[in-house]
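Continuing the batch. This is chain 6 of the set; chains 1 through 5 are on the previous pages. Same settings as before, nothing changed between runs. Recording input and output for traceability.
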Amino acid sequence: MLHRIRVPVLGTLVVAGLAIFMTLAPGLSAKADTDTPVVLELFTSQGCSSCPEADRVLADIAAMREDIVALSLHVNYWDYMGWEDRFATAEITRRQHQYNDTLGLTYVYTPQLVINGRRHVVGSGREEIMALIADAKAEIEAGLPIDIAPGTEGGVHVSIGSGTPPGNDDTDNVVWMVSYDREHSTQVTAGENAGNEMVNHRVVRSFRQIAVWRGEQLEIPISAAALRADGGDGCAILVQADNGIGPILGARQIWLDQGLF
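Output for chain 6:
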């Protein structure tokens, strides 16, 4: 059963997405390749009884495929049911509303999985998700090249390659930095999941816009303080078209909890 809520679509939110995945080995930079992964953004809630299965599906896919970038985004509109999701934010809820506007939907629901910023599907539908991943892979030839290399004093240096931006001059291709945690377990004591332990993977803690890509080579230094300002075990640099609500162009992920920098 889906959990949905009918609410007005909120104002435009500049968002971003992902599209190239690699775990950074010690002493090496994260080099872009031509095998562009598919980005999965799961909108979920600890207060939604339909979400635990979707959380498991996301974790399974993330564990078995390195060509997938998986993100768990917690919305706050189920908090009123008696359990306040400790990872939910108004920003994530706005992001989902903006996706729904782009995808032509009239309501938001959980669990919703957005694939490469182009399609959506119920997040617990494993077979349909795998089929849509295959479709998305077939559409991608090569993503926007993005490298992440060690920077000065514990920071990183991001390089985004040149290319022909999609869309028109009225829209931007937004570059975001996303911080997220590998895994969290939460004992839920109220609401629809009362008495259950919720296990969430790739839990997003923050989105920060750090630049706009307009087709030219882009160099972005990120300090250690900025890199770790919101905590998180992992960090991804994301680029998404159409003011951050369109197709995913490219991305790169590193794991900060491995002490790589």
